[in-house]
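## retry 2 of 3
previous attempt timed out at serialization; input unchanged, resubmitting
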Amino acid sequence: MDWKLELVFVPVSDVDRAKDFYVNKVGFNADYDERPNEGLRFVQLTPPGSGCSIAIGEGLSDAPAGSAPSLQLVVSDIHAAHKQLKENGVDVSDVEELDWGHFVYFQDPDGNKWAVQYIPHRVYTD
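## retry succeeded, writing output
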């Protein structure tokens, strides 16, 4: 039996601002944005090629905005990822090259922390 992680909740203070950041600056796909009732809004966003999405919204969690654990994406080209983020106005770190991976780091408008990793010895198919 497979156990697949498919959704991670990311607490934000302003759903529209966060959605704009993740879709228009980072490049996530906007999959779903519904308000099933007053006080509840569910927005699902997925990084391109990922089997796991994030959820932002209203009434989803009591966690304070910006308190998501550090999240990590993996890409096949860290320099292209860095360039895309930078060109889209994301305050992204320089590329850090370590033996076990190359990384860039950024935060969303609420301070939720993200790492983007390239793994040098992995075979990528994209």
